[in-house]
Amino acid sequence: MGAQIGPLYVRRSILIQDLPDRVWNEFKTLNRIRPWLGIGQTIHQFDLILRSEVKLSVDIDGTARYFGGVIVVLDDEREVTFESQWQSPYQWSVPTFCTIRLTPLYDATHVEIIHHGFERLGIDAAENLQGYEEGWTVRHLKALRVIVEAKDHLT
């Protein structure tokens, strides 16, 4: 069963011309995930093991800010969901969640990245939701599509 997506979320998606098992290969090691998910952020730890820690950082005004959390949903070739919480002194009262979901569609895979759980932030939900909505693009998903579809043509 996948993560429950509440009413406040940011979602970006793309259709990749390959099957979910082939797309999922790009999640399996740090060397495979960094070229696409590491765009604009540094991935320090990301192991596809339930309850393992995901550790990332972004550079904001010349300072590394760390965030991440534990993997709370792992369904091979379908979904990974992890807590998203900033480290002190920037942390929220509770974590939000980041879900990457793969859904077969035709002979392709619909890939979604969903940052959700903003409603958990109470009065701070609106400002945080708007900030992420304005800042997110599909650049990670475009990079993933290029990697998967290029490898597909090589085999």
3D structure, described in words:
This protein is 26% helix and 39% strand. The protein is of the alpha+beta class and 155 residues long. It has a single domain (9-154), classed as START domain (Alpha-D-Glucose-1,6-Bisphosphate, Chain A, domain 4, 2-Layer Sandwich). It has a seven-stranded antiparallel sheet. It is globular and about 45 Å long. The model has no long low-confidence stretch (mean pLDDT 94).
Short descriptors:
155 residues, alpha+beta, Alpha-D-Glucose-1,6-Bisphosphate, Chain A, domain 4, globular
Topology:
Layout: E1 9-16, H1 20-24, H2 30-37, E2 42-45, E3 53-60, E4 63-75, E5 79-86, E6 96-105, E7 108-116, H3 125-135, H4 139-154
Antiparallel strand pairs: 1-7, 2-3, 3-4, 4-5, 5-6, 6-7
Number of structural domains: 1
> Could you tell me the radius of gyration in angstroms?
15 Å
CATH topology: Alpha-D-Glucose-1,6-Bisphosphate, Chain A, domain 4
The sequence of SSEs as H and E is: EHHEEEEEEHH
The helix fraction, in percent, is 25-40%
Q: Can you say what the CATH homologous superfamily is?
A: START domain
Largest sheet: 7 strands, antiparallel
Number of helices: 4
Protein structure class: alpha+beta
Spans of at least 5 consecutive residues whose pLDDT stays below 50 are none
SS elements, strand count: 7
% residues in beta strands: 35-45%
State the end-to-end distance.
33 Å
In the CATH hierarchy, what is the architecture at level 2? 2-Layer Sandwich
The CATH class turns out to be Alpha Beta
Shape by Cα distribution: globular
Q: Mean pLDDT, as a whole number?
A: 94
Biggest β-sheet: strands ordered side by side in the sheet: 1-7-6-5-4-3-2
